[in-house]
Amino acid sequence: MDTQELQRLKNKFDIIGNDAALNHALETAVAVAPTDLTVLVSGESGVGKENIPQIIHQFSRRKNGRYLAVNCGAIPEGTINAELFGHEKGAFTGAVGERKGYFEEANGGTLFLDEIGELPKETQAMLLRVLQSGEFIKVGSSKVEKTDVRIVAATNVNLYTAVQQGRFREDLYYRLNAARITMPSLRERKDDIYLLFRKFTSDFAQRFGLRKVSLSIDAISLLKGYRWPGNIRQLKNVAETVTALESRPATLESERIELGARELAPYIPDEKDTLLPQIASPAATGGSMAEEDKRVLVKALLDLKGEVDALTERVKALEGGTVRQIPEQAGSDRLVGRERLGAENDDDAEWQEQSEELSIRKNTGELIEKALEKHGGNVKAAAAELGISERTVYRKLAKNKK
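Structure (tokenized):
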């Protein structure tokens, strides 16, 4: 496919991104669509695997037939055979009448089986028979029936590993794997992350009459630096939440608002929540801790470079000199106080004798304590004065208390 054809395809199915792996997946889907090959779509949860079977169906000779999508992992094991293959009246308790299954309903069309790795072994055997001969038997019946269905399956687990562990039939695995399409994770599409964010915030803002949210360069770096385990689905949730809480009603004068890393950071999940220090006591903070403050602490992020820079600048301002980082041992946070480069007088010598190494942790803790004392234990006011987030105040206090 040339660039224009590929872009038209993306526009038609509302796909955002220019990543090479994504483009390859889309081109492969179009290439195999005219055939009746069974396709296995693999990729993590939330990467957009559901787009592939829709593309295959629309570009196949079955496009005028029915397209049905079934989440195999959402159907209870006791009823999945009846859901897929149908059942006769009285086949089980509650079967008050005959019912067609998905394979019969999709006859002549395409059936998308999502989370195929969750199928029970008995159902796997029945699916293999359909793939090999197009034959199936309804639950509670002995009559063999036929269907002509194109199967596209998807999985977010490694089926080959499931085969080795005895959880998935090897013969079914190779039957499904006639053509394979892999959808890349979001962390493998870093250049597409901000494109998707803009799309999601734009759609959400337009829907609710809010200003669209754009990000500064440091905020974009923060967005790209997160690993996005929930992929596109998680990014969409974050983009919509940011827009809802940070944006304002759109006006003729302003239809956009820009956020920096400091404003965006609280919305990026902290994957080390369970490793955080114990919540500081009210006595440590100089006042009572509200439930909202506790929530902020629990959701605290890892140290951000921007916050460290802000604290460093604050130390620099108070000391009245230059602060520089010492590239010593790994993990060292030590700073050296003022230097007057090129000074050749007695004052400089006297300063050199009095100079001592400063620790970022020590100075940060002292600054925070002074700010809290000044504001009567008000964490929000102290954080605002220091130019850092509330979660950083709590985290530093907790670390210093240990």
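DSSP finds 19 helices and twelve strands in the chain. Residues 273-306, 321-345, 349-360 have pLDDT under 50 and may be disordered.
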